[in-house]
Amino acid sequence: MSLPNCPKCQSEYTYEDGELLICPECSYEWKEGEVSEQDVETIIKDTNGNVLVDGDTVTVIKDLKVKGSSSVVKVGTKVKNIRLLTDSADGHDIDCKIDGFGAMKLKSEYVKKV
Fold first, then answer.
1. How far apart are alpha carbons 16 and 93 in whole angstroms?
2. Dihedral sign from CA coordinates of 109, 94, 82, 60
3. Which residues are in coiled coils (predicted)?
4. Per-residue pLDDT averaged across 89-97, rounded?
5. Which CATH architecture fits 1-38?
6. Residue 110: what pLDDT?
């Protein structure tokens, strides 16, 4: 019998514990057939697959052009105290302040957790 992937993080390593299904990667627990959209939060991961949370510190892994400016956020720039955005339609899922640039939004695929 094949168990379903985790509805929260899509991990394939779920296991049964009595009536519950459990994900070892994000610790989400649910009963099969009882998952609603409100129960499932969006999981945001960095380029290496590490789960990001509000307040994390990340490092930029690629030179990023700043829209509307001739400036570039350089590789290795450390960004502290990030806030995650779950309702962003344009793919920018991190809200942050970068020294020398100010407030901006980043895509999680261009950062790695420190």
1. 32
2. positive
3. none
4. 89
5. Single Sheet (2.20)
6. 95
